Amino acid sequence: MADVEFLALTTKPSARLAYTFQAPEATTKPVLVVFLNGLGLPQAFWQPVIAQLKTLRQGGSLPAFLTYDRFGQGQTTDRDPQDAGAEDPTHGHDCLASVQDLRQLLVQITTEKLGVSDVDSVSLILVGNSIGCALARLYAQEYPCTVAALLLLDSVLANSDFVSVFPDPDAPDFDPASIQPIPVEAIRAVRAGARRIFHPDVGSKEGLSRRNLRELLPASDGPQLKGPDGHGPYVTVVGHDFDTFAEESAKMGPPKGVTNRFVNPYWQRYNEGLAKITEPDYSKGPIIAPNAGHFVQKDNPEFVVQELNELLEKVL
Protein backbone atom coordinates (compact mmCIF):
# COMPACT_ATOMS: atom_id res chain seq x y z
CA MET A 1 0.00 0.00 0.00
CA ALA A 2 1.29 3.46 -0.91
CA ASP A 3 2.27 5.84 1.86
CA VAL A 4 0.01 8.80 2.49
CA GLU A 5 1.65 12.12 1.64
CA PHE A 6 0.46 15.69 2.14
CA LEU A 7 0.38 18.57 -0.31
CA ALA A 8 -0.82 22.17 -0.17
CA LEU A 9 -2.53 23.48 -3.28
CA THR A 10 -0.89 26.67 -4.47
CA THR A 11 -4.40 28.10 -4.75
CA LYS A 12 -5.09 27.25 -1.07
CA PRO A 13 -1.67 27.29 0.61
CA SER A 14 -2.98 27.36 4.19
CA ALA A 15 -4.37 23.80 4.06
CA ARG A 16 -3.02 20.39 3.07
CA LEU A 17 -4.59 17.46 1.23
CA ALA A 18 -3.76 13.83 2.04
CA TYR A 19 -2.99 11.74 -1.04
CA THR A 20 -1.22 8.63 -2.30
CA PHE A 21 0.69 8.42 -5.57
CA GLN A 22 2.10 5.36 -7.27
CA ALA A 23 4.44 5.86 -10.21
CA PRO A 24 3.82 4.32 -13.64
CA GLU A 25 5.71 1.27 -14.84
CA ALA A 26 6.74 0.33 -18.38
CA THR A 27 4.48 2.86 -20.08
CA THR A 28 5.26 4.69 -23.30
CA LYS A 29 2.91 7.60 -22.59
CA PRO A 30 1.82 9.31 -19.37
CA VAL A 31 -1.45 7.80 -18.09
CA LEU A 32 -2.87 8.71 -14.68
CA VAL A 33 -5.77 6.93 -12.96
CA VAL A 34 -7.49 9.23 -10.45
CA PHE A 35 -9.89 7.83 -7.86
CA LEU A 36 -12.72 10.10 -6.73
CA ASN A 37 -14.37 9.34 -3.39
CA GLY A 38 -18.03 9.57 -2.55
CA LEU A 39 -19.17 11.27 0.64
CA GLY A 40 -19.04 7.99 2.52
CA LEU A 41 -15.75 6.18 1.97
CA PRO A 42 -12.30 7.87 1.99
CA GLN A 43 -9.35 7.15 -0.29
CA ALA A 44 -8.16 4.11 1.70
CA PHE A 45 -10.94 1.99 0.18
CA TRP A 46 -9.37 2.27 -3.29
CA GLN A 47 -6.12 0.61 -2.21
CA PRO A 48 -7.37 -3.01 -2.61
CA VAL A 49 -8.41 -2.15 -6.18
CA ILE A 50 -4.95 -0.77 -6.98
CA ALA A 51 -3.16 -3.71 -5.33
CA GLN A 52 -5.22 -6.29 -7.22
CA LEU A 53 -4.80 -4.46 -10.52
CA LYS A 54 -1.03 -4.37 -10.06
CA THR A 55 -1.06 -8.11 -9.42
CA LEU A 56 -3.20 -8.72 -12.51
CA ARG A 57 -0.89 -6.67 -14.70
CA GLN A 58 2.34 -7.94 -13.14
CA GLY A 59 5.16 -7.74 -15.64
CA GLY A 60 3.14 -5.47 -17.93
CA SER A 61 2.58 -1.75 -18.20
CA LEU A 62 0.99 0.15 -15.34
CA PRO A 63 -0.32 3.72 -15.24
CA ALA A 64 0.26 6.12 -12.38
CA PHE A 65 -2.35 5.98 -9.61
CA LEU A 66 -3.61 8.89 -7.51
CA THR A 67 -6.00 8.75 -4.57
CA TYR A 68 -6.82 11.66 -2.28
CA ASP A 69 -9.16 12.79 0.45
CA ARG A 70 -10.94 16.06 -0.16
CA PHE A 71 -10.82 18.82 2.44
CA GLY A 72 -12.45 17.68 5.68
CA GLN A 73 -12.53 14.04 4.60
CA GLY A 74 -10.59 10.95 5.67
CA GLN A 75 -6.94 11.72 6.38
CA THR A 76 -7.29 15.31 5.18
CA THR A 77 -8.12 16.92 8.50
CA ASP A 78 -7.78 20.48 7.18
CA ARG A 79 -11.02 22.13 6.13
CA ASP A 80 -11.45 23.97 2.85
CA PRO A 81 -10.04 27.45 3.55
CA GLN A 82 -12.77 29.00 1.41
CA ASP A 83 -15.38 27.65 3.83
CA ALA A 84 -14.14 29.92 6.61
CA GLY A 85 -17.03 32.03 7.82
CA ALA A 86 -19.63 30.01 5.92
CA GLU A 87 -23.12 30.48 7.34
CA ASP A 88 -23.58 26.71 7.28
CA PRO A 89 -20.26 24.79 7.41
CA THR A 90 -21.96 21.67 6.02
CA HIS A 91 -22.68 23.63 2.82
CA GLY A 92 -19.39 25.50 2.58
CA HIS A 93 -18.58 24.78 -1.08
CA ASP A 94 -20.09 22.99 -4.08
CA CYS A 95 -18.99 20.26 -6.47
CA LEU A 96 -17.62 22.74 -8.97
CA ALA A 97 -15.26 24.10 -6.30
CA SER A 98 -14.12 20.53 -5.61
CA VAL A 99 -13.48 20.02 -9.33
CA GLN A 100 -11.36 23.18 -9.41
CA ASP A 101 -9.37 21.82 -6.46
CA LEU A 102 -8.92 18.56 -8.35
CA ARG A 103 -7.64 20.44 -11.38
CA GLN A 104 -5.05 22.25 -9.28
CA LEU A 105 -4.06 18.99 -7.57
CA LEU A 106 -3.51 17.37 -10.97
CA VAL A 107 -1.45 20.31 -12.20
CA GLN A 108 0.88 19.95 -9.22
CA ILE A 109 1.01 16.14 -9.20
CA THR A 110 1.78 15.82 -12.90
CA THR A 111 4.56 18.39 -12.57
CA GLU A 112 6.10 17.10 -9.34
CA LYS A 113 5.56 13.34 -9.71
CA LEU A 114 5.46 12.74 -13.47
CA GLY A 115 7.73 15.56 -14.62
CA VAL A 116 5.09 16.72 -17.07
CA SER A 117 4.51 20.46 -17.29
CA ASP A 118 1.33 20.27 -19.39
CA VAL A 119 -1.35 18.48 -17.38
CA ASP A 120 -3.52 18.13 -20.48
CA SER A 121 -0.88 15.98 -22.19
CA VAL A 122 -1.53 13.26 -19.59
CA SER A 123 -4.19 10.66 -20.41
CA LEU A 124 -6.62 10.77 -17.49
CA ILE A 125 -8.83 7.92 -16.34
CA LEU A 126 -11.30 9.05 -13.67
CA VAL A 127 -12.77 6.37 -11.41
CA GLY A 128 -15.62 7.65 -9.25
CA ASN A 129 -18.08 6.29 -6.73
CA SER A 130 -21.33 8.01 -5.74
CA ILE A 131 -20.77 11.79 -5.76
CA GLY A 132 -17.30 11.07 -7.14
CA CYS A 133 -19.06 10.21 -10.41
CA ALA A 134 -20.61 13.68 -10.48
CA LEU A 135 -17.16 15.18 -9.92
CA ALA A 136 -15.76 13.08 -12.77
CA ARG A 137 -18.48 14.28 -15.15
CA LEU A 138 -18.05 17.90 -14.11
CA TYR A 139 -14.30 17.70 -14.57
CA ALA A 140 -14.71 16.27 -18.08
CA GLN A 141 -17.23 19.05 -18.88
CA GLU A 142 -15.13 21.87 -17.43
CA TYR A 143 -11.92 20.66 -19.09
CA PRO A 144 -13.06 19.14 -22.40
CA CYS A 145 -10.79 16.87 -24.43
CA THR A 146 -8.69 16.03 -21.35
CA VAL A 147 -10.30 12.85 -19.99
CA ALA A 148 -9.63 9.59 -21.82
CA ALA A 149 -11.98 7.37 -19.80
CA LEU A 150 -14.46 7.36 -16.92
CA LEU A 151 -15.45 4.43 -14.74
CA LEU A 152 -18.64 5.43 -12.93
CA LEU A 153 -19.47 3.22 -9.96
CA ASP A 154 -23.06 3.65 -8.77
CA SER A 155 -23.28 7.36 -9.48
CA VAL A 156 -25.17 9.70 -7.22
CA LEU A 157 -28.59 10.63 -8.64
CA ALA A 158 -27.32 14.12 -9.36
CA ASN A 159 -30.61 15.60 -10.61
CA SER A 160 -32.86 14.06 -7.95
CA ASP A 161 -34.09 15.28 -4.59
CA PHE A 162 -34.23 11.58 -3.54
CA VAL A 163 -37.77 12.13 -2.22
CA SER A 164 -39.53 12.23 -5.59
CA VAL A 165 -38.22 8.74 -6.31
CA PHE A 166 -41.27 7.59 -4.33
CA PRO A 167 -44.94 8.39 -5.07
CA ASP A 168 -46.41 11.31 -3.14
CA PRO A 169 -49.43 10.16 -1.11
CA ASP A 170 -50.46 13.80 -0.72
CA ALA A 171 -50.53 14.59 -4.44
CA PRO A 172 -54.03 15.35 -5.78
CA ASP A 173 -53.87 12.56 -8.38
CA PHE A 174 -52.39 9.91 -6.06
CA ASP A 175 -54.14 6.54 -6.27
CA PRO A 176 -53.50 4.27 -3.25
CA ALA A 177 -54.10 1.25 -5.48
CA SER A 178 -50.99 2.16 -7.50
CA ILE A 179 -48.66 1.18 -4.66
CA GLN A 180 -50.44 -1.91 -3.37
CA PRO A 181 -49.65 -3.99 -1.39
CA ILE A 182 -47.44 -1.29 0.19
CA PRO A 183 -49.36 0.74 2.79
CA VAL A 184 -49.68 4.48 2.22
CA GLU A 185 -48.15 5.19 5.63
CA ALA A 186 -45.08 3.14 4.72
CA ILE A 187 -44.48 5.30 1.64
CA ARG A 188 -45.02 8.45 3.65
CA ALA A 189 -42.44 7.25 6.20
CA VAL A 190 -39.93 6.34 3.49
CA ARG A 191 -40.27 9.79 1.89
CA ALA A 192 -39.71 11.44 5.27
CA GLY A 193 -36.59 9.32 5.82
CA ALA A 194 -35.22 10.16 2.36
CA ARG A 195 -35.77 13.87 3.02
CA ARG A 196 -34.01 13.64 6.37
CA ILE A 197 -30.96 11.74 5.11
CA PHE A 198 -30.51 12.17 1.34
CA HIS A 199 -32.20 15.43 0.25
CA PRO A 200 -29.74 17.94 -1.29
CA ASP A 201 -30.53 20.35 1.55
CA VAL A 202 -28.76 17.91 3.88
CA GLY A 203 -25.14 19.02 4.17
CA SER A 204 -22.00 16.93 4.64
CA LYS A 205 -19.31 16.70 7.30
CA GLU A 206 -16.68 17.77 4.78
CA GLY A 207 -18.66 20.85 3.78
CA LEU A 208 -19.41 19.67 0.23
CA SER A 209 -22.90 20.85 -0.69
CA ARG A 210 -25.27 19.16 -3.15
CA ARG A 211 -27.79 22.01 -3.16
CA ASN A 212 -26.97 23.14 -6.71
CA LEU A 213 -25.99 19.74 -8.11
CA ARG A 214 -29.28 19.53 -10.03
CA GLU A 215 -28.36 22.76 -11.79
CA LEU A 216 -24.78 21.62 -12.48
CA LEU A 217 -25.89 18.22 -13.84
CA PRO A 218 -29.58 18.55 -14.77
CA ALA A 219 -29.71 15.42 -16.95
CA SER A 220 -28.12 12.01 -16.67
CA ASP A 221 -27.79 11.62 -20.44
CA GLY A 222 -26.04 14.88 -21.25
CA PRO A 223 -24.24 16.92 -22.16
CA GLN A 224 -22.18 14.56 -24.24
CA LEU A 225 -18.55 14.69 -23.18
CA LYS A 226 -15.61 15.47 -25.46
CA GLY A 227 -12.55 13.30 -25.06
CA PRO A 228 -9.08 13.52 -26.58
CA ASP A 229 -8.30 12.54 -30.19
CA GLY A 230 -11.55 13.90 -31.57
CA HIS A 231 -13.91 11.37 -30.01
CA GLY A 232 -15.75 10.92 -26.74
CA PRO A 233 -14.05 9.40 -23.72
CA TYR A 234 -14.53 5.75 -22.93
CA VAL A 235 -17.33 5.55 -20.36
CA THR A 236 -18.25 2.46 -18.33
CA VAL A 237 -21.38 2.79 -16.20
CA VAL A 238 -21.74 0.39 -13.28
CA GLY A 239 -24.80 0.01 -11.07
CA HIS A 240 -25.34 -1.73 -7.76
CA ASP A 241 -26.73 -5.24 -7.36
CA PHE A 242 -30.46 -4.72 -6.81
CA ASP A 243 -30.92 -7.29 -4.06
CA THR A 244 -27.72 -6.37 -2.23
CA PHE A 245 -28.66 -2.70 -2.33
CA ALA A 246 -32.20 -3.43 -1.14
CA GLU A 247 -30.82 -5.37 1.83
CA GLU A 248 -28.34 -2.56 2.54
CA SER A 249 -31.11 0.04 2.38
CA ALA A 250 -33.37 -1.94 4.70
CA LYS A 251 -30.83 -1.42 7.48
CA MET A 252 -31.45 2.33 7.15
CA GLY A 253 -35.23 2.20 6.84
CA PRO A 254 -36.87 1.43 3.47
CA PRO A 255 -38.17 -2.16 3.30
CA LYS A 256 -36.68 -4.30 0.52
CA GLY A 257 -39.97 -4.35 -1.34
CA VAL A 258 -40.09 -0.56 -1.49
CA THR A 259 -36.48 -0.27 -2.72
CA ASN A 260 -37.01 -2.92 -5.40
CA ARG A 261 -40.32 -1.37 -6.48
CA PHE A 262 -39.22 2.26 -6.75
CA VAL A 263 -35.53 2.98 -6.13
CA ASN A 264 -33.82 0.31 -8.22
CA PRO A 265 -35.82 0.96 -11.44
CA TYR A 266 -35.30 4.73 -10.99
CA TRP A 267 -31.53 4.28 -10.56
CA GLN A 268 -31.37 1.91 -13.54
CA ARG A 269 -33.03 4.52 -15.77
CA TYR A 270 -30.56 7.13 -14.53
CA ASN A 271 -27.65 4.82 -15.36
CA GLU A 272 -29.09 4.14 -18.81
CA GLY A 273 -28.90 7.88 -19.37
CA LEU A 274 -25.32 8.05 -18.11
CA ALA A 275 -24.25 5.57 -20.75
CA LYS A 276 -25.20 8.20 -23.37
CA ILE A 277 -22.74 10.89 -22.22
CA THR A 278 -20.28 9.60 -24.80
CA GLU A 279 -20.54 8.19 -28.32
CA PRO A 280 -22.10 4.70 -28.57
CA ASP A 281 -18.84 3.09 -29.71
CA TYR A 282 -17.10 4.30 -26.54
CA SER A 283 -19.87 3.44 -24.08
CA LYS A 284 -20.34 0.33 -21.94
CA GLY A 285 -23.25 -0.32 -19.64
CA PRO A 286 -25.04 0.06 -17.51
CA ILE A 287 -23.73 -3.18 -16.08
CA ILE A 288 -24.40 -4.57 -12.61
CA ALA A 289 -21.66 -5.19 -10.05
CA PRO A 290 -22.58 -8.58 -8.55
CA ASN A 291 -23.11 -8.67 -4.78
CA ALA A 292 -22.27 -4.97 -4.47
CA GLY A 293 -24.31 -2.30 -2.77
CA HIS A 294 -23.68 1.40 -3.24
CA PHE A 295 -19.98 1.21 -2.32
CA VAL A 296 -18.89 -1.01 -5.20
CA GLN A 297 -15.15 -0.66 -4.54
CA LYS A 298 -15.64 -2.00 -1.01
CA ASP A 299 -18.10 -4.79 -1.80
CA ASN A 300 -16.58 -6.11 -5.03
CA PRO A 301 -13.08 -4.74 -5.70
CA GLU A 302 -12.41 -7.66 -8.07
CA PHE A 303 -15.18 -6.43 -10.36
CA VAL A 304 -13.79 -2.89 -10.34
CA VAL A 305 -10.34 -4.27 -11.22
CA GLN A 306 -11.82 -6.14 -14.17
CA GLU A 307 -13.59 -3.08 -15.58
CA LEU A 308 -10.67 -0.73 -14.94
CA ASN A 309 -8.25 -3.14 -16.59
CA GLU A 310 -10.48 -3.21 -19.66
CA LEU A 311 -10.30 0.58 -19.89
CA LEU A 312 -6.53 0.51 -19.41
CA GLU A 313 -6.21 -1.85 -22.38
CA LYS A 314 -7.91 0.80 -24.50
CA VAL A 315 -6.00 3.82 -23.16
CA LEU A 316 -2.45 2.58 -22.47
TrEMBL record:
<feature type="region of interest" description="Disordered">
    <location>
        <begin position="72"/>
        <end position="92"/>
    </location>
</feature>
<dbReference type="Pfam" id="PF12697">
    <property type="entry name" value="Abhydrolase_6"/>
</dbReference>
<dbReference type="InterPro" id="IPR051601">
    <property type="entry name" value="Serine_prot/Carboxylest_S33"/>
</dbReference>
<feature type="domain" description="AB hydrolase-1">
    <location>
        <begin position="33"/>
        <end position="306"/>
    </location>
</feature>
<dbReference type="GO" id="GO:0016787">
    <property type="term" value="F:hydrolase activity"/>
</dbReference>
<keyword id="KW-0378">Hydrolase</keyword>
<feature type="compositionally biased region" description="Basic and acidic residues">
    <location>
        <begin position="77"/>
        <end position="92"/>
    </location>
</feature>
<protein>
    <submittedName>
        <fullName>Alpha/beta-hydrolase</fullName>
    </submittedName>
</protein>
<dbReference type="InterPro" id="IPR000073">
    <property type="entry name" value="AB_hydrolase_1"/>
</dbReference>
<comment type="similarity">
    <text>Belongs to the peptidase S33 family.</text>
</comment>
<dbReference type="InterPro" id="IPR029058">
    <property type="entry name" value="AB_hydrolase_fold"/>
</dbReference>
